[in-house]
Amino acid sequence: MHIAVAGNIGSGKTTLAELLSKHYGWNAHYEDVDKNPYLNEFYEDMQRWSFNLQIYFLNSRYNQVVEIRKGEKTVIQDRTIFEDAYIFAPNLHSMGLMTTRDFENYFALFTSMEQSIESPDLLIYLRASEPQLVNMIQQRGRPYEEAIRLDYLKCLNERYEAWVSTYDKGRLLVIDVDENNFKENAEDLGKIINKIDAELHGLF
Questions:
Q1: CA trace torsion 183, 57, 115, 94 (10° rounding)
Q2: Is 170 left (phi over 0), alpha (psi -120 to 50) or beta?
Q3: 92 and which of 9, 50, 87, 173 could share a cystine (Cβ 3.0–4.6 Å)?
């Protein structure tokens, strides 16, 4: 089975994936931010590196999905290929940080890839307000994220909400991170686990 955690930068995807991986014994697939060759340059000069970064993510996540579906174990994935295509890349394009030529080329490649992959069996979306995102980003203290602008997070949030409102590729579970401190509160984590159990029973 393929479980995926979606959400804006700083919403807690990696933390939740870790906690659920431990609880259920699932294999976890994370975003490899430390080995990403474009992230630092991207946040310093988004216009120059946006296309390169999105192509890197597209290739990386496509290979992840192929690997997940080949295996026999249940996997929880930190961020999906759909978020890159429907949220991050179009947001960069609309902000004038990716040319129309590059965006159309990117999206054509995604469309070709999408035909050969399956969607997650369950998508967990972490909804978080911009103040909450800023707080969590500051707490983890990644140097390259210090340059992230509030308007950038706001635009991403709007796109996430639009995407989730029409999501029809599989089961969807929405968690309000402003109201659920699963990172530090075991009771809050238990609420999420109960909701996941309810969803998963319908998948067997």
A1: 90
A2: left
A3: 50
Q: Is pTM, for the whole model, over 0.85?
A: yes
The average pLDDT across 50-76 equals 93
Instruction: List the catalytic residue out of 32, 34, 45, 78.
Output: 78
Q: Is 78 annotated in the active site? A: yes
**Helix residue ranges, H only, the chain:** 13-24, 39-44, 46-70, 81-83, 89-94, 100-114, 130-140, 150-165, 186-201
Q: Is 185 exposed, middle or buried (0-12, 13-18, 19+ CB in 10 A)?
A: exposed
- Summarize pLDDT for 69-81 with one digit per residue, the tens: 999 899 999 999 9
Give the whole-angstrom CA distance, residue 129 versus residue 11.
9
Query: Can you tell me the distance from the alpha carbon of 38 to that of 117, in angstroms, rounded to the nearest whole number?
Result: 25
* Domains parsed from the chain with CATH numbers: 2-201 (3.40.50.300)
